[in-house]
Specification:
Blueprint lengths: L1 E8 L2 E8 L7 E7 L10 H10 L2 E5 L13 H28 L3 E11 L1 H12 L5 E5 L5 H14 L7 H13 L14 E6 L7 H11 L9 E6 L8 H15 L1
Parallel strand pairs: 3-4, 3-5, 5-6, 6-7, 7-8
Antiparallel strand pairs: 1-2, 2-4
Helix pairs in contact: 1-7, 2-3
Amino acid sequence: MIGIYEEQINQIPYLHIVKSENYNFELPTIIYFHGFTSAKEQNLPIAYMLASKGFRVLLPESLHHGERSKGLTDKQMQISFWNIVIQNVKELEELRSVLLKNHWLLEGRLGIAGTSMGGITTSAALVKYDWIQAAAIMMGSPKITDYANALIGNFKKYGELPISNNQLQQLLRQIEAMDLSHHVDTLDQRPVMFWHGDKDPVVPFEHSYLFYQEAKDTYIDEQNIKFIKEPGVGHKVSRNGYLEATEWFAKHLL
């Protein structure tokens, strides 16, 4: 039987999904980040698929979302987007620490994935952490500096930015430091899968596809990098996308 456990480390609530009889064993593990204005529970379908394969899965709650919501307005949430991504990347280290402390992680076999904002988090985490062994970026952008500049441009159309120019430049420097498209070498042959619908109106399809075209040339074994395009699909991961991600991790981490 697959169990769903509500747990927390420091101020980070997360759902822990695993076959109940395997709870205390060391297992290959996936940490899956949810999207913007979503919540951890909405990724239970893929968590169930992964747990059925034999993985341990953690679904963390991002800052200002779900249980951590503080009633921010839509505008305040939009302003906070990149701070949430940066916080996700920091908190990933804490989530890994609970896996190590409890002897839940088998032989360092840790995969990271996420949807939309969670996919952006995943691409940024790949730059920072070499202990990530495999990843799946689901309709996220690995070109986060370009994406940030586009969002800033859109925001300026509707008024002044609510931060100073110095604050903006500091934020952009933080984003650039985690921009996978600026640090392709940090992939270091690690298995990475991209899924994206080609009609996505929110996160540009071209960001992930063009990056994939560039990155695959750095791989000795091209089977370790994969791009799945779903024609006609907008900003929502299909069941096929979840199945593909599940099989990707089964191939590379089990």
